[in-house]
Fold this protein.
Amino acid sequence: MQVGDRFPDAAVGDGKGHGTQVSALLAGHAAVIYFYPKDSTSGCTLEARDFQSHLAEFQKAGVAVYGVSADDDASHDKFASECGLQFPLLVDTGGALGSQLGIFDAGRGRHSRVTYLVGADGRLRQIWPAVQVKGHAAEVLAAATAPAR
């Protein structure tokens, strides 16, 4: 995937036991979609809390935030509760979405830590491969609130 490409569509779980299409979640607004390896691990917890700390700023800018991992609904629910998350954690258990992006390791059943900024038109505005967790959410927020090029 490259900047300018349309973000792929796939069926995902909404973390509350319901299925949805990524295209339905993205319809008409910009979004940050960050993939992480596993709920309740140190790096993933830090990253989730960091996005949560900036959530009001993302919302003010009209940018939705979604976390995605291969963990199931129960794991996501516990993780969201532990971290006080007020944004959805999407379930990509089989890696359908992650595989389209080339970031799902089927052998380990986990996604790589990669973040995507998707414009309201459904196209990729920016990609952060191999994310360094500390300060990442602020970096994404700066890009999300910058004028589109």
Observations:
- DSSP finds six helices and nine strands in the chain.
